TrEMBL record:
GO terms for molecular function: cytokinin riboside 5'-monophosphate phosphoribohydrolase activity. Residues 1-36 are annotated as: Disordered. SUPFAM superfamilies: MCP/YpsA-like (SSF102405). PANTHER family: CYTOKININ RIBOSIDE 5'-MONOPHOSPHATE PHOSPHORIBOHYDROLASE. Belongs to the LOG family. It comes from the Bacteria. It catalyses: N(6)-(dimethylallyl)adenosine 5'-phosphate + H2O = N(6)-dimethylallyladenine + D-ribose 5-phosphate; 9-ribosyl-trans-zeatin 5'-phosphate + H2O = trans-zeatin + D-ribose 5-phosphate. Its EC number is 3.2.2.n1. It comes from Xylanimonas protaetiae. This is Cytokinin riboside 5'-monophosphate phosphoribohydrolase.
Length: 272
């Protein structure tokens, strides 16, 4: 049974708590997450001995993630709120996104939880495609939804985020909260700073996202905090099928540009 989030934002503990591959329930649930312990300031000199060993655990998460996802093939990451109920139009739109991506030959990657994540995984699963969930250790574990057919659980957010970017050719972002905003802006930052090859980002839900785009095109751009082209990294639509079409077509264009640049670089004469 997947854990659900109530109207007041409090999660149910029924599914237990995942700590890497370990499932804990009841009194075994820890007070702190692995991320909290990693990022906490040192209280005594024990950190000199403990933190270097954490590197091995972090390394293992990358190794496990790379190994599990290496053969996923073309994929798109879908983000959105864990709180979206199943009878909400956003849930239906995310199901359509998952279905359309699989019909186009792509795997679907989500955070593996309830709400929008479950919906996108459901669409992918029902279409007969690869439905990937990348879970995370949280104080109130949400659990992997039933539509995931390839799931990987992570202790560390940064390891999980790497997998979202590394194995996806684009992002489709549904309405969501802080977690969704975090994933969206991290992706935009990586593209803007050229830390990754450019990839498309589509936002679904005009009434939800339009205010963000107005803010980016207005005060943020007016103060010179972004360049004129930066807000155009986002494509806004109400149509989930259009979002999928944009991500796939724009992704193909960007891939062609990257191949041409690599070919030109390879053909350029070397000095000396």
């Amino acid at each position: 049974m997947s854990e659900r989030v109530t109207d007041d934002g409090v999660a149910q503990r029924g599914a237990g708590y995942r700590k890497g591959p370990v499932l804990l329930r009841g009194t075994q649930i820890p007070d702190q997450t692995t991320d909290q312990r990693l990022l906490a300031g040192p209280q005594d000199t024990d950190w000199l001995h403990n933190d270097p060993w954490r590197v091995m655990r972090i390394q293992s998460e990358f190794v496990e993630g790379f190994g599990a996802l290496a053969e996923v093939g073309p994929a798109v990451s879908v983000f959105g709120s864990a709180r979206t109920p199943r009878d909400h139009p956003d849930y239906a739109a995310a199901v359509q996104v998952g279905r359309d991506l699989v019909d186009a030959g792509y795997a679907v990657i989500t955070g593996g939880g309830p709400g929008i994540m479950e919906a996108a995984n459901k669409g992918a699963h029902e279409a007969g495609g690869l439905s990937v969930g990348l879970g995370i250790e949280l104080p109130f574990e949400q659990g992997m939804n039933e539509y995931v057919n390839l799931g990987v659980n992570f202790r560390y957010f940064f390891a999980r985020k790497t997998m979202f970017v590394k194995y996806a050719q684009g992002f489709i972002v549904m309405p969501g909260g802080f977690g969704t905003f975090d994933e969206l802006f991290e992706a935009l930052t990586l593209v803007q700073t050229h830390k990754v090859t450019g990839f498309p980002v589509a936002l679904v839900g005009v009434d939800f996202w339009q205010g963000l785009l107005d803010w980016l095109h207005g005060p943020v751009l007016d103060r010179g905090m972004v360049s004129a082209a930066d807000p155009d990294l986002l494509h806004l639509t109400d149509d989930p099928t259009e979002a999928v079409k944009y991500v796939l077509e724009r992704g193909a264009e960007l891939a062609a540009v990257e191949r041409a640049a690599q070919a030109a670089s390879a053909d350029a004469p070397t000095e000396g």
